[in-house]
TrEMBL record, chains A, B:
<dbReference type="Pfam" id="PF00440">
    <property type="entry name" value="TetR_N"/>
</dbReference>
<dbReference type="GO" id="GO:0000976">
    <property type="term" value="F:transcription cis-regulatory region binding"/>
</dbReference>
<protein>
    <submittedName>
        <fullName>TetR family transcriptional regulator</fullName>
    </submittedName>
</protein>
<dbReference type="InterPro" id="IPR001647">
    <property type="entry name" value="HTH_TetR"/>
</dbReference>
<dbReference type="GO" id="GO:0003700">
    <property type="term" value="F:DNA-binding transcription factor activity"/>
</dbReference>
<feature type="domain" description="HTH tetR-type">
    <location>
        <begin position="6"/>
        <end position="66"/>
    </location>
</feature>
<keyword id="KW-0805">Transcription regulation</keyword>
<dbReference type="Pfam" id="PF17754">
    <property type="entry name" value="TetR_C_14"/>
</dbReference>
<keyword id="KW-0238">DNA-binding</keyword>
<dbReference type="InterPro" id="IPR023772">
    <property type="entry name" value="DNA-bd_HTH_TetR-type_CS"/>
</dbReference>
<dbReference type="InterPro" id="IPR041347">
    <property type="entry name" value="MftR_C"/>
</dbReference>
<keyword id="KW-0804">Transcription</keyword>
<feature type="DNA-binding region" description="H-T-H motif">
    <location>
        <begin position="29"/>
        <end position="48"/>
    </location>
</feature>
<dbReference type="InterPro" id="IPR050109">
    <property type="entry name" value="HTH-type_TetR-like_transc_reg"/>
</dbReference>
<dbReference type="InterPro" id="IPR009057">
    <property type="entry name" value="Homeodomain-like_sf"/>
</dbReference>
Amino acid sequence: MGRWPGGTQERLQEAAIELFTERGYERTTVAEIATRAGLTERTFYNHFADKREVLFPGQDSFIAKVREAVGAAPAEQSPLDAVNAAFIAGSDWFDQRREAAQRRRHILDAHTDLREREWAKLAALGEAITAALRTRGIPDPAATLTAAVSVTAYQLAAARWLADPQYGTLGHHLHTSFEDLHRTARSW
Amino acid sequence: MGRWPGGTQERLQEAAIELFTERGYERTTVAEIATRAGLTERTFYNHFADKREVLFPGQDSFIAKVREAVGAAPAEQSPLDAVNAAFIAGSDWFDQRREAAQRRRHILDAHTDLREREWAKLAALGEAITAALRTRGIPDPAATLTAAVSVTAYQLAAARWLADPQYGTLGHHLHTSFEDLHRTARSW
DNA sequence: TACGGTGATTGCAGAACCTGTCATCACCGT
DNA sequence: ACGGTGATGACAGGTTCTGCAATCACCGTA
């Protein structure tokens, strides 16, 4: 058992994705993940709150970044544009991990448990954006509605990004998704 | 142990809400819920997929009703109005259960686990509406965006309905929430 | 080199969740 | 009286997750 080789979380994440794709999420135990990473089950739980969380690395810091970017946006920018810009500013990270995102999505789509966690993360993102918009002086309910619709546009962009055979950037798809949103909102 | 006294699910739900408010969600075991209802733990799991599900009675049938109502809306109605009308059509059920909804909300707010499940239900509602809108000929991404923003407006209305000291109906709050949505969308 | 502090890792026990399997029971029609 | 049906119960077992305390490697300091 190599002890302290560093990168513990990353090793656990890779081991988890490997095993999930090999045997499926439910047929993989936390103990197996830890063993493949050269660690123990207990250590897994020192790094991740539960079994699902290993599939959502960096989500919390992404949320924090978006919140910060929305708060720091120029005052003359519309709320929706501010959120859009914040998403685009953080999109490089994803473009560099397209393949990992693909595998992750396949696992997520196959298990309701995991999609539940994903929705929870998206809800947290929405609440963070709502809070940031409020500090920009946007009152409720506009803040809540704008945040929610932004998250939906973001989801849409992410889906297109993963499905795009042309390998367009996430930023590009965010741009078109928010254009679609403007167009659709005009019909409401 | 009264066997087959009828209303098994309802008894389990009431026992669960009682115990959750008395000791809290985490400090209540499924076995305790079942015992208070005069049943066994195994029977609980014959009626509910897991411990959380006991707090979401009728959600699935509500989703089915909304899907149906959206599909059956008059053709001249705009997509957003169709969803709004579908919500209002199913709002009586909630108005008759305001107090239970209050207690349920207090329990939900205190536990991330349960809010996660709630988000999952809302996501399922959104997907059902998306599907219904597509059968009405609304193409993507308009169907997805319209459904998502409708669900958000619904959440907003439900929150106001529970907080309203005047005890206004859910239908009333749905009306004003969708008006807010129209107003906000004009700024996008 | 010796020593102690710090933080990560581990072992162990145990509660609770959830499932599979099969037996048992009440009801109902014949 | 009899058999079918469906809900309930008993039991075993795996898995998830937590609390607690011990162990280990590293690092600065004397």
